[in-house]
Amino acid sequence: MQRHCLVPVIVLIRGFGNAVAQHGSAPNGYYSLGYSRDTFAGIVSATDDATQSITLEYSKGKKSESFTGRLDKPCGVPTKDGKPMKASDIPTGTDLTVYYNHKTTKTGDQKQSENLIIGFTFNSFQGKLIPESSRKLYYCTAGQTQFQAH
User: I need a surface site. Which of 56, 82, 88, 92 has the fewest CB within 10 A?
Assistant: First the structure.
């Protein structure tokens, strides 16, 4: 009889975990010093080369959330022309997980906050899910030689 009570609880926990899956924490690995291990997964809805920003959208059922972050530095993604990657090189509709630090700065009496993207992974390619173990992290930050494991 206890087994019957456990099944709804497990289903509820799994469903809740999926509902908040857009925010997460980076797995163990090599990251820049000071990285907060924050992640956000979603679909690219907009990019802006002037600000080097990327906007991701996440929705599941009635819940939706938007995330905008700026590339900290040019990303280590190979490009056809050999030039540094621009935000617009990531097509709208791409399923990404971004690794970011939230930064608040004060200019005079005003506080400004932004999300600095220090890396990202492609979650799928051409509509096919990439297994987590095969995803490559592309860094968008300086000082890769100063990375250490968490």
Answer: 82
